[in-house]
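note to self: the first set is below, dont mix up w the second
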Amino acid sequence: TTTTTTKRWLVPRAPRVLTRTEVSVTLIPPELQNSLRSPIRGREHPEPATFAVLAKVHTSGLAPGLHNVDLPGAGVRLPADGSVTRVTVTGLTPNECYTFSVVAYDGNGDVIGGPGLATDGIVCMHPLPSTTLWSNLAVAASRLGCLGVAKRAAGTVSRRFVNTRRPPRFYYESHPMSLQRLRGDLVAGSTFPTMRAVARSLLVAAECALASRMPERPAGDPPVPMSVPEVQDQVFRLRCAKKILMAMELARYVDDVPLTQEIALRLGNCLAPLLTSSRKSRLLVTALAQCVSQLRDTGAARHGAVARLSASLLFELASIARDNGERGVLSDVATLALDSLEDVDLAPNPERKSLEQFLLSLPEWKDLASDALAERVAAAESESASDPCAAVLPKISVDGAKAAFDALEGIGEEIHSHEEYLRAFARIAKAAVAQGLSPDLPAWTDSVLGKFKAATAVAPLEFPAPPDEEPDIALPEEEETRVAALESAAEAAAETLAAAEETLATEDATDEDKAAAEERKAAAEAAKAAADGARDGAMAEAVRREKAARTLTRKLPPMFARRNAKLAARPAIASNSPWHAEVHTTLGLVKHERAEDAVRAEGLPDVPEEAATREAAEPEPEPDAADAAEAEASPPPPPPPPPALDAMRSFARGVELASRVGAHGRLMNAARAMHTLARSPSCGLRADPRLAKNGGAGLLAVAAARLVEHLEKLRVGTVDESPMVAVDGGAESSRAPVDDEGDRLREERRARIVEAQPPSERDPPPSWFADRPGVAPEFCLRFVVTAAEACAAAGMNHGAIDLAVGIAEALGTADAAAAAMPIAVAAARDVADSLPDGMLEGLEKSARAALGARAEPVAALADARALASIDAAEYARRGPATRTLRRAGAEDLERNFSLFWNGIDEPESIASTRYFGAEVTLPPWKSGLLETGKPSTWKPPVGSAPLAHGDAVEAAYARAVATARTGNDAGVVAQALLELGDFEAASGHPRKAASHWSACVDQITGCYRTVTTAGASALPGDPEACLRRYGLWGCLRGAQAAARLASLGSVRRSSAVGSSAVDSVTLGNGHRIEAARISAALFAAPFASTLAHSPRAVEIVSGVRIPPAQLWDGVDAHGSDPFGFDARTSCDFATAVGELLVASGRSLEALPPLAVAEHLAAHALRDARACARVRCAQAAALAGVGRFDVGWEKIDGVLAGDSLPSTSTGPDGGVVRDESGAVVTRNPWGTPENRSRPFDVAARVTSEANKAAIERIAVGEMPDAIADAYGEEVCAELSLVRARWLVSLATPLAVWRGDDADAVTGEPIGSEGGSDGSSVDADVRDDVLARAEEILTRLAESTTKAVAEKAAAEQERIEARRAKAAEAREAREAARAEKEASEKAEREAAEQAEKEAREKAEREEEEAYEAAGPYPIAVKKPPADDPDATGAPGGGSDAENADPNAADGTGRDGNEPEDVEGSQPLHPDPDVDVDVD
């Protein structure tokens, strides 16, 4: 047992003051029962029976006594049993200070212990409202910039009136806005002024919280980039929004409309970052719905910003509610029953009009039963229609784009100059592309734009013709009077002149007379001179003035009329320009898709090479005169233009139109489309070299220049890119700012603090776009750099310089200068002669400064990347890197140990230098594009040895890793290892690549050999914790490195012993699965960065099918590969990881990488085949985790070809056409009532709806055009997925419903044939498995047939090739035999001709010899002892030794005696001519 002891006192405690007035005080008596004790220890405790209140004027050191009972209410004995809770003492003097106490009496009326403890002095006056005081203090402190005081004062009021629950461990366990609630008991007992003060205090508390919110970073220096999930900031912002909503609720309760609308504006500012995000969370529905409900019945908006904000919030509420299936909220929004949509001044609200247009564009707008929408549509269909959007938008989704276009054309000519005319057509153009009417779009565009230009065009000046006959011109009356006066004076002067001359001629005239005569003569001559020509001059001036007046009268009215027409057309042109740009962008996308299809089908046009190339070829023979005349008469046709030029022209026009009116969203859309076209692998700048030279570079230069001008306007604030809430995708912007003096004072205070710091300790000022993500500076830089490179390649060097310098100045960052200025320097060097003096030197200086401002690890990584981007031939041409030997030190040992730990060995090209003291030197072109690519005079250091290209790349990345580790830059280390692994894989060294990728994973996770040791257990279990530890980029880099290991880990290569090409990867299947699990976990971590994503992997792909352009805020899949890899490779690796995990039975872990792969395939690649493959893998994974309904939707969408990406329609809505060009539509299946119902996991498999869904999976057919678009491999994968879905559905039929089967044995519960239907139908499972078997059987048969056909075709090809080879061999043999025969015949003929010629020559010689003869010839006889001297003398026959001069043919003359033996011959030497007498 336990005993509870209550503390007792000798006298009563002091009473508590409840309220006070000028003449009274109300007290709460203390607890008297069981609270008093006897002053003598051991005696029984007294029990009070009554008590009385004592009161007196407060004086120093004196408490009320027993005699202070004169005041009314004092001294009155009251029961002490607790029934009396309040005692009021009256009759007090105003502004007098009193003190009070309590005395207790026992049952006998005796005092117990004496008077009790006294209260402090209490002044008799009306009480000061503490809540109001704290509220006023909070508001004043906030306005004066005293954030701490304001936060404390507002927090005091907030803690008093708000109940706050402790937040859960994980943010997704409860709604962030459900943790705070107003205390109803206090609010019910508060007056209206108090509630108004509480509302302002809550408003100040929320603003102070938002102003003082600093992102939490983990300990360590430097912090991991984006290490804190943005979800925490979003949750915090929602909690602040809850405070604002509570303030709005109080203001609405007291019917304070101005305060309510002001709070709504502040709520809009609080939710602006969440509403402008690319992905919007469903949690925003609560905040938006509460705000809209509070704005109801508040009357018209007191400010125009409130009206625009109301429409914007309704739009966001409608869009988010519709995406999440909240049809009731959508219907409520469609009523447009919010009074604040209208301004008190009845000013037009463009946001409301855009909201109505959004609602009208929904297919279900009629089901919303909105009278406002119906009235607008009815007004648009009347004869006096002046609303093109209302006339067109309802028809697009119901009747199609063709009907909408016909409706737009039939409105009337007066609508062509309407401010929303092109807006309506822009919607029609998008719908036409999505509905497969893109062939009709060019004609529609020409028609509509022609009518718009004609309606807004200003007629040229036409002046009326001057009159044929000039009328007589008379002098004005004043001029006539003046001229007549001059003529009269001239006549009078003539007489005076004659008289003066007579006086001068008189000899007796005095000198005075002559002087007077001279004066009169001069005056007379002057008057005569003034009169001479006065009339002609006046008449000429009159004629000039009359002609000028007639000219002005004839020309000024047409000029003013033209000016007025231009001013009148300017608003229509300005309002339609954004949509004019959108039309050109849509048309350009259609042309882009057609160009790619044409190039894919036919290839690039075969255009002759340039003249420079033809000069190096062999000279062609000159044609004769007839051929030259024919060629001159019919010149060769011009080469066809590049396929992408027309699309690029449309995009450039869109950029130019959008930049004129500052439409940031339309400008960025056109620029992104143009950039995608320029980078197209089939018809872009690199694929088609003619594109840049034949106009593409000029178009890019124009678009890039307009983009730079737009950035300048954004920087100075002329235009705005980030509206608080955007309606209709950025068509109209509405800011709702509330001027706050506290913001200005806080900024001034912060500026004073910065000025007080030393310059060396000041942080660099943030860039002007630091808090403006809508500017997209990275994309702007990439686009302008691409345009500058294209201009430089096309010889437009001045344009390249202007663009590079312009983007560097517009952005004003070191990164922008480092990326752009080298291009300007390279272009300036080519045209250095035409540049002003000192410009090239200034550009080079700026480029070096920008490159030198980079961090050393970043610069080293850029050097390595530039070295790896060239091939071995270019590397040898520029000059190889070298290695210099030096003595190794402690730093070298530490550096090489770190490199070894990261999987980088020293280059092995030079065996004698494989030690730690090797220093690698790169040639001077390492810094980027400062060199023009020409061989330089750079010489390697003395004592250095050249390196091969691969060794130089590895050494460069090793240096980047070492520099980054020295600078504690883990991101650069991981990036360098990832890129080095990619280089080694591309070079044919998978073992080295796997080593570097493994080192990249180890660098990120901090675990040695993560894949082969700890595996996925080395990662934090919570995705949010994983994101906190590694950061966003760390997670993505690690995911890619692990994906490469999982995908390429099974590569094994073997070669002969001793071969240097031995390279293998020995990563087993278990390690590959662990690598895939690591990759999947790191892919899942970024999904915890925002509230828009579900924290559960199974819901990542079960929501909206196509995510926004940015899967995560700040990560642009279209950009310059922020992870160091291209989108195609990333998509393939992520898909491989997902498929590997599904095959290994880890379907839940496979969903995050598959979601990333789907995003890349749909948004970055626009590849329908890759997207279908990823969705097949997603369906298999979803079936593996039991989400058969979502998996069924995936399979059904792939079968029907729904939501396929394309260049023209974007990531969703691609159109597939058959051979005839018709659009392929969905094949009907099932009954009409079940076609729109997917598989229902809550219903039984035997239900009718699920039977139809299973039938769709089992025997659903795919159109041939869609199958051709997918290809045989994807179709086979789809068949496997369909069978897997059926098998996964059939396998757990005995255990998947707890009420039908035993959880342990799997046996059915209940009777086998019970009427309740609780038993499991085994036939259903067998039927489903049989259907899966049929699919697999058909796939096996079709695969076998395809393999047989392929083998037969291959065999036919081989046999045909063999036959062709045999025919060729026979033809070669026949040709060889024929050649040999012809050569033999030619040789024999030549020999015969040569023989005949020789014989002829011999005969001619003999005849000449015989004609000059006879010649006695001495016969040579051999010696007697010669063994050959047998037979005839001379060693030969008689005929051979006969005298040719002998008549008998024996060689002797008939008169000559025979030779005597032993006589000397006549000719001892037959070669010597001897004269014989």
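second set (the one i keep forgetting abt)
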Amino acid sequence: FWCNTDEPFDNQLGSSSMSSWKEYKTADGLEYYVNETSGETTWDKPEELMDAGELITGEYSWVPHPDQGYVIAKIKHEAKDGTRQIETVDGFSMEVKLGKTDKIFPKVNFASLKKHMDDLVQMQDVNEATIQYNLKERAKKDIIYTNVGDILISINPYKLLPLYTASVMEEYWHGNTEALPPHVFTIASDSYRKLFEDKHNQSVIISGESGAGKTEATKVVLQFLAEVAGSTSGVEQRMLSANPILESFGNAKTIRNNNSSRFGKLMEILFDPKARIAGCKIQNYLLEKSRVTKQSLGERNFHSFYQILSNPEQRKKLQLGDANQIPYLNQSGCIEIDGVNDGEDFEEVTHAMDSLSFSAQEKQEVFNLVAAVLHLGSLHFVEDGQGSKIANANLLEVVSNLLQVPSFMLGQELTIRQFQGSASRSTTYSIPLTPSQASDGRDALAQTLYGNLFNWLVAKINTCLTPQGNPGQLRMIGALDIFGFEIFEKNSFEQLCINFTNEKLQQHFNAHTFKLEEQVYKDEKISFQHVEFIDNQAVLDLIEKKPTGLLILLDEEIVVPKGTDETFLKKLNQSHEKNERFKVNKTSRTTFTLIHYAGEVVYDVTNFLDKNKDTIPEGIIDVMESSGSSLINALFPPSSGKAQQESSSDDAGRGRGRGRGRGSPGPASPAPAAGGKTNRKASLGAQFREQLNQLMITLNATEPHYIRCIKPNQNKKPASQDFDGMMALRQLRYAGVFEAVAIRQTGFPFRMTHVDFWKRYRLLAPTAQGSNPKDTCAVLLKEIGKVKNTSAIQIGQTKVLYRATQYRDLELLRNFQIEKNSIIVQAGNRGWKSRIIYKRVNAVRQQLRAAIAKRDLETIKTAISAVETVDFAPKENIDAIALRDLIIEEIRVTGVLKQVLGEVAMRKDIPQALLDRLKAVVADADAIGFKSNEANNARAQYTEISDRITTRALLQKSTTDSDEDNLKAGLAKAQQLGLSDTEATVAAAKEELARIAKENEHVRDLKSALSIDRLNPGLQISSQPGSKGQATLTAQAKQDLITAESAADRFGCKTAVGIACVKTAQVVLKVRRALENEAFEEVESLLYEASKLPPGTILDAPELKAATDQVQTRAKKADVQAKLESAAAVFDGATLAFELGKAATLQMEVEYYTDLHNNIVHAQSLISEGLRLIEQEPLEAACSFAESFGYNLEDYHQAVHLRDVLIGLAGEIDHTLKILESREQMTELYNRAVGVGMHTAPLAELGKLVVLSEEELTKRQLKAALILNEKARIISLNIKLKEIFFEQFGNTFKINECSSIKTPQEYARGKIFGKEKTRLEMMNWQKGGIHASLTRIDPLLQKENKDAVTLFKNLIGYMGDKNLSYPQTLAREIIQRGIETPILRDEIYVQIIKQVTQNPNPESAKKGWIMLELCLSHFPPSRTFENYLEIWIRQQGESRSKLRSVLHEVLFSGAKTSAPAAEQIPA
């Protein structure tokens, strides 16, 4: 529709009208509606456009659902108990029961559901239901990142996505992160920028439940920082190397996650003043030590156990058996993980240890300790009197050797417990342990050993990552990967600690979010209402505040004599029964309930005291201190004297704490966490409170960035296919997402800088202009305010701030104006193009018309050539082409006519050749309707000459043949043509016609005497059976024939009828005489001879028929019949011929025998000829004809055999000539064919092929394969041809001499330092990135030159030369870029060649070769580089020959359209 962009908005949009509504779509596909009569616009669908179902959508609400979280439904009925009968928008009826806290959100806005926002606070309708729906719909499209203001929500996609490649990293580092989609790189990039822009430490807080993707998010953040910051010492790569070790010893498979972190960690990445990574410090929290000795069904122990077992060398050295036989590993029924190779992971761990300076002894001692833990679990205790003993003592020796402790001491401490007397500390006594107690002690030792080992590993890694230089100059970004809020069916001490951590972090989160939000408004100096802070301090006080905090009471209870879990619960209930955050569970003696920010959690106090103690007996500590292992000494350092005991004797008696649950984090050095004998060890709760307080101090000193990780389902299926609504809703609540949205929604969630706001909305008032950007925005809003109320939009110091309602109004106006402007622009552009095209075509049309009217050949040709200069040809072009062709033909015909007519005029007698030429040119003239004088003259002359020749020929032939009718017709035509009567042909014809008239009189006499036309009255023929055919003649009748025959014979008849009459008369006269003499054999002979004469030679005289009847006898017929049958049975052709002669005389019915005889004669003739010629076609014809009537004599069998041999050979030859087999096969076939005398043209062609040169034969074979589209053979023959070519010219294709590859001097040109090394090692493997492309790419193509450097990062990331996450996605991006950008293909191949050349790492080189094969499978090199690449592959040896086939296959098929999925690429 038309729009005047200068017209005021109030005139354009007008007042509301409910007619003429029309639907439009924005650029991103969202519908909006325009009333074309009034100009009114709206996002909401007008009722006029709604169908019957949509008119009642106001009845739909978001209703809580136990599985889906929320569903869109109508409430049909509501019961008193909260049960509601609902009907979903899909028409399904169901019943749901709502809890007290469940909310129904009424009036679903269906239009807003189509807008899947990047930022949840910018949604039109914001509530729990719409947030969950928005995330679900984004997940369906593999959009896993969504913002809540500055907070990032990350959904675990459960599949590889191309989101973390070098090019994506580059985009988020150098691009505008505010304009890019949400991404974890945005968080990492912002934290890094602010670290040095604001000169303030940063933190990235990553939380979520197990399986939500926290570990992966942490790795991606670290990878980004390592890439963009780098270092001078390579410490960033060592930092990334810590991950495989931490994951091996701290991660495990759970029901929820195949690689679940069973500990929390804070990684403090330290940066020097030049913004480079200087070092790193790791702090770990709450390792789940209980997993060492017990796992739930379907879960695994820590990865490290299985990885060591996967290495045959270590397995043998450590005397470990099958995992299925090890108690600490076989109790869950899960040993392996689909898609995980523990052997490869073990190699990665050992490589990481090498990178972090672990000595060989340290590595082996670590493996020894892990094996000792497994062997400990296999110790079996049995009853021994009142105590117990170890049944498999030999295994105790293995454990002792691995730990390097005395076996008798270890065995004693595992089965006997030493106690100090209550009266005298110097007095000790021993109590034997039952098998159950001994097993508990063994498990406690195993857990402590592993927990202390993990702490030591963290401390060792920290030692390797310690920064150099002045610590005061360093800045820090902390990456916190911490467990999320947990609510299980049974919640114990571990869940209390975890949820206490999350309460602390939530308080920090709320405080920061509120503070940050209000700070923005203060900085912008706009008016706003203070938002009340959502505080959870009451819960924190309930847990940790003295004197009655839960953890305080728990610490007191472990030192109180006879304190138990039950006494602890009793004190807890007494202290907090009136606290609104605490619930006493009166029906239970072991549980209490805390009301956390995320919901109510019921805790079971069973084993709370033991878990809080986290101790092992002093006797076992003594044994460990005596170890000869330096690692065990580090985990259990010797005490400096007897401890001063602080606990009571009863407490000392309970000193055998089980060490269950999660252990405390390790200290900064490889010291143990398991307590010693100096002073009473602090409780686990106290340690954890202290570390948590330190963590909060660290975080409070930073500017935080939040990543909330969400797990989409329990089945580990891709989020795009399975999104569990209720599960996601629960995690969103636990993560405080809804509170964060609420905070932002109460303020101004939409914010744009003055310049950005003006750029986006300036088309609403193009003339708006102020003295500065802020004033311009004010003028712009004033103009917009004439249409929509803009009073709620605030202009700050640097930004324009507004809410969702104003955002919708602005976007609606903007889209409406874009639609109108687009139509105007498009119409103008199309009209301009059309006018130009019309002018060009019209000019050509006029030129064509003028040329047609002029009818000049050259002018017409010029006009037709002009048509090629325009977009399409006018219809006159067809007429012009036809006229051009007609004129050319007329010119040609005229020339020929003149030549032929000239020759005719010069001759009196016209030869046939000249007449044929005259005929042909007349036909040409007729074909084009040519009516010139020459053409008309030629037509007349040709007609006259042709008629004269035809008439003379007719007269001549008729005279010779004595043909009366043709003589008469010819003479009439001669008279018409004016031929002279004196002309010899005419005179002879007239003379012959006169003679024929006299002959006719004799013919009449003969016919009368022979009774030809009517029976002579003097002749009577008997029809009686006994005398059939007997003739009676009068004397006169006899004399009439004699007289007539004599007269005619003397006259000399020449006409056909005259000759026949004379001949017939002569035969009849002979038959009469023979019959008179009763010479029947003579009669038979006469009649037989007469029958052999050609048709028409003898006329049908009645007397001859009568004679035949007389000589036939029944006896002769029988004899003839018998002989015919006998001869037919044996295909006796001669006998059949003779008998058939007699049968004809007797007028027998012998057609079958006649045909048979003819067939035999013909078959024998064909067979004889075929055998003589040795040719397939004659033999096939002969055999086929013989088979048609059953002929099977010896000559037939000879013909069949020879025919079959020739057919087989012909088929083989045809097949061979079609596919061109190997030279050997063709030679063998040729010799066989020549041997039987075959001499066909295909055989001759085959003979020529077998003597061709190898190159020429291969070319012919390739051509045949191309015709047959035999892909594999084409590739093989191409390789063969290339091999022949390379044998001659291979030395000319040296890789370093390829014109598309830079010279080393060119490549090193951009380097400032290390230029010589760069030049020398240009085509050799290197560990780091490249500074420029290796191939010559046009400098003007800046993006492609930049992409070349980025692709090399992907390559070394995939090959493992650089620590980058998701290597398969890096490989996929390389392949996809090669497919999409041909100019980069040679660059990719050269990069791979570089990285596999002199590569010191076999695994890296292996990945390089895999990458080369993947690339060759998907896109070809350039024609320039093709031979260089193939020669290089050829030089790599026979083991790489497959790559040549892959290369030729892609050269044949061309580039594929897309890269393989990341999952299909070898990891």
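remember for set 2: The chain has a mean pLDDT of 86.
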